[in-house]
């Protein structure tokens, strides 16, 4: 635009000079051509300036239109922001849940430790094991004449030789068998009777109010005459020290027990014989 104004100024000055001079036709013609050329250049510059103005105005209008439009990513951005906020809230909730789970796990681990093999259970077993071994040895020594020993243990060896916390009874026979499985039927019965009576004695000592009554159902099963005689000797000992002993058996024990009741079952009915 400045260039155009400059050319217009020159054209006007030229025209003024022409009018003042008017010296010759040739000069006039030359000046006229010069003026017309300058005027054409001015018109061209004005046209170009007008076109540029229209382009600028169009660009401004397009800019305003775009500026006024809603961004196509606005909804996406809002949804993404909402998703992020939800994830943060969920994570906060999960962290709270995890803290609660960790707390409960800690309590559970403590309970396992207290109630497990190395906790209260081990303490109790370590306390009662000597008593069980003493009473089992007392009864089994009489029943087997000292040939069989049974030891209560709180630790056992695995097949691989590793030690594990396990409550078990180790049985040996001085005449051969090194385990409970190697004993005869009568010998196994003696071990069972001895350990059962040892447990019975332990329970009796722990009871707040002891009941002076001992009931043995078919305790004489699988015992030979010598074993039965020794067992009856133990029964008399218990009756003398602890109270009443009641023995239930399918065999005739009148030779060992003076006070006996015979019950006969016939046709689905039971009766007591005189």
TrEMBL record:
Residues 93-254 form the RecF/RecN/SMC N-terminal domain. This is RecF/RecN/SMC N-terminal domain-containing protein. It comes from Vreelandella sulfidaeris. The lineage of its organism: Bacteria, Pseudomonadati, Pseudomonadota, Gammaproteobacteria, Oceanospirillales.
């Amino acid at each position: 635009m400045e260039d155009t104004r400059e050319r217009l100024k020159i054209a006007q000055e030229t025209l003024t000079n022409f009018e003042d001079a008017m010296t010759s036709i040739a000069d006039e013609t030359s000046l006229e051509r010069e003026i017309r050329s300058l005027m054409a250049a001015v018109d061209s510059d004005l046209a170009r300036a007008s076109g540029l103005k229209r382009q600028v105005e169009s660009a401004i209008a397009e800019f305003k239109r775009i500026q006024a439009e809603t961004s196509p990513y606005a909804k996406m951005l809002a949804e993404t922001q909402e998703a992020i906020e939800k994830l943060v809230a969920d994570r906060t909730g999960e962290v709270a849940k995890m803290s609660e789970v960790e707390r409960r796990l800690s309590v559970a681990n403590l309970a396992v430790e207290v109630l497990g093999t190395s906790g209260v259970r081990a303490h109790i077993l370590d306390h009662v094991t000597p008593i069980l071994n003493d009473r089992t040895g007392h009864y089994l020594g009489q029943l087997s004449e000292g040939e069989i020993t049974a030891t209560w243990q709180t630790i056992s060896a695995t097949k691989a030789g590793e030690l594990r916390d396990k409550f078990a009874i180790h049985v040996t026979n001085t005449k051969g068998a090194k385990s409970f499985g190697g004993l005869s039927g009568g010998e196994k019965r003696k071990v069972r009777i001895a350990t059962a009576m040892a447990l019975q004695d332990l329970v009796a000592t722990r009871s707040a109010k002891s009941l002076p009554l001992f009931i043995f159902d078919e305790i004489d099963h699988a015992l030979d005459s010598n074993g039965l005689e020794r067992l009856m000797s133990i029964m008399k000992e218990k009756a003398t020290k602890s109270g009443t002993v009641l023995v239930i058996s399918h065999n005739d024990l009148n030779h060992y027990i003076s006070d006996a009741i015979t019950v006969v079952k016939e046709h689905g009915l039971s009766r007591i014989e005189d």
